[in-house]
Amino acid sequence: MINELLFMNGYAVYVFSAFGFTLLSFLSLYLVTKVQFIEEQNKFVAKFGSLNTEQAISAKSQRINKEILADATNN
Amino acid sequence: MFKLLEPNKIFQITSKAPKYVLFLFVVVMSVGLVEALILSPEDYKQSDAVRIMYVHVPAAWISLGIFSSITILSFSGFIFKNKNFFLISKSLAPSGFVFNIIALVTGSIWGKPTWGTWWAWDARITSMLILALFYALYLISWRIYENEEKVFKISTFITILGIINVPIIKYSVDWWNTLHQPASINILSKSSIHSSMLYPLLIMTAAFALFSLLIFLMKYNTELIKIKNKGLDRL
Questions:
Q1: What integer pLDDT is reported at residue B232 of this predicted model?
Q2: B59 to chain A: nearest residue by CA?
Q3: Inter-chain CB proximity B235 and A51 less than 8 Å
Q4: Residues A48/A50/A53/A57 CA torsion (nearest 10 deg)
Q5: Domain extents for chain B?
Q6: Of B27 and B189, the one with more pLDDT
Q7: Chain A: residues touching B (Cβ < 8 Å)
Q8: Residue A63: pLDDT above 90?
Q9: From the list B12, B36, B109, which residue is nearest A17 (CB)?
Q10: Helix (H, G, I), strand (E, B) or coil at B43
């Protein structure tokens, strides 16, 4: 059965290269997107850290900012 | 109704959703791969080469679906002056583009054993290549233009031009003599594909849809944080 799966009546090279290309594209897109997300999140944390107390209180009044910070600390 | 979709309100959901979508994607994709590579039967004519269909067809369907959604969202964003629609469109585009490329490459790989050639300038393949160009133009427009109003206008214009190509892709196999076979799956009438091949195809389509949802959520969250970063600069 394993031989059948690996040989695929002579079409294995085509089938596995199509599936391999698909999975590789998925992995690349996922990693690129993840890296971009983490970079933006880190920028946000760094910028938030450089705010003075008054600015930080003002920024924290927005729920989305609190959530971005919480999400960054969880990751 | 649009207020329910405001980024500030939905970030709580979109920031937590990716990990659940990723888990679901891994489960559905694993089932799909077992079905597609092991359990589904070989074709009486194409033998095991038919298995390429399980990645080629879902990729083509989803890239077409995403482009149509981008067009509707961009057009609606323009009509209702809603920036969030543009943000959703922009976040959908990368996965649509990658699915388009997957459809072209796997189609080319499938073409070699079945047609004896890697590439042919037939109506379906050429129109899919044109769709990839429209995707590329759309993505480039967001990189080139800094001015928000300008990028909204140009990206919407690109999608409206590109959407003309979508029915051409769909009906190219009926309108012209092409190497492609006519559609085997029809929503309105009986499909000519056997259920033993249809179910793996639908499972793989579900997996691909989950992956595009995952990438969309991650991109959308990135875009929201980018906006918030600009907001911090203004403080």
A1: 73
A2: A22
A3: yes
A4: -10
A5: 56-183+198-234
A6: B27
A7: 5, 8-12, 14-15, 17-19, 21-22, 25-26, 29-30, 33-34, 36-37, 40-41, 43-44, 47-48, 51, 55, 58-59, 62-65, 67-68, 71
A8: no
A9: B109
A10: strand
Give the count of Cβ contacts less than 8 A between chain A and B.
112
C-alpha distance from B75 to closest chain A C-alpha (Å): 26
Dihedral sign, Cα of residue A17, residue B206, residue B225, residue A38: negative
Confidence at residue B42, expressed as pLDDT on a 0 to 100 scale: 87
Helices B83-115 and B123-144, axial angle in degrees (round to 10): 150
Which letter does DSSP use for residue B182 in this model?
Answer: P
Inter-chain CB proximity A18 and B106 less than 8 Å = yes
What pLDDT is stored for residue B188 in this prediction? 66
CB atoms closer than 10 angstroms to residue B40: 22
Mean pLDDT of B59-75: 96
Banded pLDDT at B147 (limits 50, 70, 90): confident
ipTM over 0.95? The verdict is no
Contact between B96 and B111 under an 8 Å Cβ cutoff? The reply is no
**Best A21, A26, A39, A50 residue to mutate vs chain B (most B CBs within 10 Å):** A26
Could you tell me the CA-to-CA distances from B52 to A9, A72, B27, B82, B108 in Å, in that order? 14, 40, 20, 40, 10
Read off the pLDDT band of B95 (50, 70, 90): very high
Token couple for B58: 């879902």
Contacts of B224 in chain A (CB under 8 A): 64
